[in-house]
Amino acid sequence: ERTSPHSPYNVVAWHGNYVPFKYNLGQFCAVNSVTYDHLDPSVYTVLTVPSYTEPGTALADFVVFPPRVMATDENTLRPPWFHRNTMTEFMGLVYGTYDAKSGNTRGFQPGGASLHPCMTPHGPDATSYAKAIQDECTTPKRFQGGLAFMFETNCMLGLTDYARTCKHRDTDYAMCWANLADTFTGWEQLQKKRYEYQDDKPSISNSRPVR
């Protein structure tokens, strides 16, 4: 926690039509799905900057994950899916806990942040995933455990020297996925399909293909 010795509003004047504005993120009205979670985070966009070189693509989105009601569809995974994004994601936690990183008690704390560059795979930590798959999702659930934000951009972000050398940097961040069990049971079916495409059907062994 840090208290600033001055306010950013302590200026002589503002140039042009830019003026300071304070917005309570806790009052953001989240778009909710009654069919399935987790929606693309762009539905939580508060501010956006359009790209003039790639129409339909945002140069930057500012997204907030406020207290909200979660969907009720059965067989739903309420935390974010494991995914890779064509955008770079910089995410931070203002207070409380984040529903996809509830088990990461060391790294993702209020005041902390994570950076997932373009196409870097990521998702819920092992603890959050194990808890989520036990949830039958038959009744609405209000998540009010915290407030998180994210900057999403189609640009690559560089790190400052301070960010690379800061003593608070979580060098074991990737370990939050270390205990994820391999529960996929479709290896034999995939191999069978592959052999069908190759017009070759040898006996299927129990060995798994290299991933």
Commentary on this structure:
The protein has 211 residues and is α+β, with helices and mostly antiparallel strands. Helix content is 11%, strand content 19%. The chain contains three helices and seven strands, in the order E-E-E-E-E-H-E-E-H-H. It has helices at residues 126-132, 161-165, 187-197; strands at residues 45-50, 58-65, 68-70, 88-96, 113-116, 141-143, 146-153. The strands form two sheets. Strands 1-2-7-4-5 form a five-stranded antiparallel sheet, with no helix packed on it. The protein has a two-stranded antiparallel sheet with strand order 3-6. Strand 1 and strand 2 form a beta hairpin. The mean pLDDT is 82.
Spatial order of the strands in the main sheet?
1-2-7-4-5
Unreliable residue runs: none
Tell me the fraction of residues in β-strands, as a range.
Answer: 15-25%
Structural class: alpha+beta
Q: Quick one: how many beta strands?
A: 7
Helix content: 10-25%
For the sheet with most strands, the description reads: 5 strands, antiparallel
Average of pLDDT? 82
How many angstroms separate the termini?
A: 43 Å
Rg value:
21 Å
Task: Write the element-wise H/E pattern from the N-terminal end onward.
Answer: EEEEEHEEHH
Q: Count of DSSP helices?
A: 3
Shape: globular
What secondary-structure arrangement, pairings included, does this model have?
Elements: E1 45-50, E2 58-65, E3 68-70, E4 88-96, E5 113-116, H1 126-132, E6 141-143, E7 146-153, H2 161-165, H3 187-197
Entry keywords:
211 residues; five-stranded antiparallel β-sheet; two-stranded antiparallel ribbon; 3 helices; 11% helix
